Description:
With about 120 residues, this protein is an all-alpha fold. The chain has helices at about 15-20, 35-50, 55-80, 90-105, 110-125. It is built from five helices and no strands. It is globular, with a radius of gyration of 14 Å.
Amino acid sequence: xxxxxxxVPYPKMSLPYALASGFYSGCLPIATRGTAGSVLxxxxxxxxxxxxxxxxxxxxxxxxxxAGWWSISVIEGQLGSKFHDxxxxxxxxxxxxxxxxxxxxxxxxxxxxxxxxIVSLLSFA
Length: 125
């Protein structure tokens, strides 16, 4: 069962919550928040790629990994492990989508859709 955004008793306007929720993309009131996070993560990824190329995406993936690790650790440290994988926390979908885009963007833009579908399907597992 998916938790509602209001089910996570943590300050919504805090840095750990903003990072863990994929800059609040996981707070959108739709059924599959992971899909929303995956789709919305494409925009900053494409901007990074267009300006600085694949190297920026590699650095961004590392940044997302460590930001996710830190933010979830802080939230878990205060609330316990009950909220470890709450559906509002979609930073892992962001990282997964950026990994797909790192390999797809240099070749063809249509791969975005395929990457979003793959990450969304994997987030249901």
